[in-house]
Give the backbone structure.
Amino acid sequence: MVLDGLGDLATKGQNELTPLEAARTPNLDLLVLEGVAQGRMTPVAPGITPGSGPGHLALFGYDPLEFQVGRGVIEALGLGLHLKAGDVAARANFCTLDGKGIVTDRRAGRIETAVCEELCDLLAKRIKKLGDAEVIIKAGKGHRFVVLFRGKGLEGPLTDADPHREGAPIPKAQPIGRKSAKAKKTAKLVADFYKAALPFIAKKKPANGFLLRGIAHQPEIPSFEERYRLKPACIAVYPMYKGLAQLVGMTKLEGPQTLAAQFERYLAEYDHYNFFFIHYKYTDMHGEDGNFEAKKKAIEDFDAALPILLRKKPDVLAITGDHSTPCVMKAHSWHPQPVLLHSALSGSDKLDRFTETGANMGSLGVFEAKYLIRLMQANAKMFDKFGA
Amino acid sequence: MVLDGLGDLATKGQNELTPLEAARTPNLDLLVLEGVAQGRMTPVAPGITPGSGPGHLALFGYDPLEFQVGRGVIEALGLGLHLKAGDVAARANFCTLDGKGIVTDRRAGRIETAVCEELCDLLAKRIKKLGDAEVIIKAGKGHRFVVLFRGKGLEGPLTDADPHREGAPIPKAQPIGRKSAKAKKTAKLVADFYKAALPFIAKKKPANGFLLRGIAHQPEIPSFEERYRLKPACIAVYPMYKGLAQLVGMTKLEGPQTLAAQFERYLAEYDHYNFFFIHYKYTDMHGEDGNFEAKKKAIEDFDAALPILLRKKPDVLAITGDHSTPCVMKAHSWHPQPVLLHSALSGSDKLDRFTETGANMGSLGVFEAKYLIRLMQANAKMFDKFGA
């Protein structure tokens, strides 16, 4: 159970309690009394603030330093695109160019989503293929969109086709690091895309150009099922988290829009899978807004729905975040997120509640998030003894 | 001071306290009041349950993932065999074969130890050498025994000469992984042993065959004394722990059968060594039986004897387990074991007692057991500053 961005900070003079500490959580408290182990997890490494990609890959047991997923890929997943290993994805922005091709506004005056969708439709209709590669274009919010290149022998990462400031032309995307034939082919493909696409929007104002960033391919990731001998399902509302789950081969159970509905779906699907990843976005969202009361309320809403989840008495239950999103920071942070582990073998740390401060005193200590799955598997008695 | 399998779980509705928490330990409590550092140790890695071999190698400062000791070697050590680096050891079972060589009972009707000893004596008398390799056979309990091959150029691991089920013939032991000339020689030696030995017991009922498992050589392990500049002695009662100590070159101080006698022996030998590994088996034994009261009593017995150990005021004293053996599990587990460190420089964590819950809050945190020796050496001021 992932409460996105759950971890927070108590800050003298601002909030003396964290949202988790301040929230009324009677159902969570009951679970803690039944016996749970607590601890804190370092999402990537000490001092490193993760994005949602590394945050979740770590929770799924994949070393986020070994399995790196590009920003373009994450953005594409966030728009609900179904990526295949080897697909090259880029985050894109419409921008404004002057007569000499100089970027005069990197966000094209922040055009409306509707305008962006119109422009993307236009480009998508005119450019379906380039050479042997398929081109997929999908509009996002405001001036943002995503370009996906699907074909044989493509590879990222490339440098950004973005000067990262106004007053300069759009640089060519170039292979980063070793210049493989695949990376060169991909760089040429991006250049060809610019050549083909720019004329179609040359007369549009203010969005007569575009920038591409985070150009990378989706890496081959060993499947969760093979890695852990568990049949996993994802019950998430937001596309990015479904996408991340799909990256490791989880089945997406679509439909539920509320946490109660997600938990009901879990009950309904209980016999068909033996691992469920349930994602709850609002703790992070309100943390990003710096809205302490709303984050606290999101935790209380989670607590109110929790009895539905517990109806099936899961053998092993972990409740945690993918990282911290402290309200005072209005952003993801590096602070280890609290984690609660409940099973017949989790033992009890004899703490009253599940909180950041309590988790500091828990038996799990501070550990790397990538080990959580292994601990859960141990609690499910999935392992033989190591050595005699 | 190793209280084998010391760590345990508090479990709602069963034992709300762990044996260590429930035990009356006035002498340990006094030591804690004098000032100790506490923490918990991960024996191998998060979620991994160790056997006694990896558990102890970690305590001796050897990475248990780097120095792996085969099951055959551990079994041989448990029977008190003195192994040399390169010796190949196998766990053996007498079994019953039908006329066609099919295994009909993998445990030969669980023959009495006396019968096993007779059969082992017979085989040991008839087969002393095969080619240039010495063969050593030693009976264990019931149908179990150990076969040791000592010669030049031998190497494991080999696959088991055991179908692991009834109704199949005994498969040939084959090299695992890279097929080195040494491993091939060892596989041939095992095959030759079968050829030589089976005829001698062909008429015996029901033990007219045998299975070999965990066939591996004893790895070359750098000596404790060279590694740490400490002259180590082992005061243990059970052969396996003496054997593990001997693997790293500790001197075995034989004789004592009770903890009080072990501590007295420590006092007597105090001037002859500067590191003592004292092993106490009963915490683990009662944990394996799921006998909470007996495990608690074993801890109280330890506590009662403790003042003898403390008479010499050791410069650095660590009290811990090699892993947890929770009563509810009746088995070793992955849960980090509590550790107490006492020295003039250990500081005080200001806790009242040495318990799992207290250790969660200790200054040592949760760390890998292989670092304990280094911490002890630091407390003994054995190290220079690193860098300027």
Remarks:
- DSSP finds 13 helices and 14 strands in chain B.
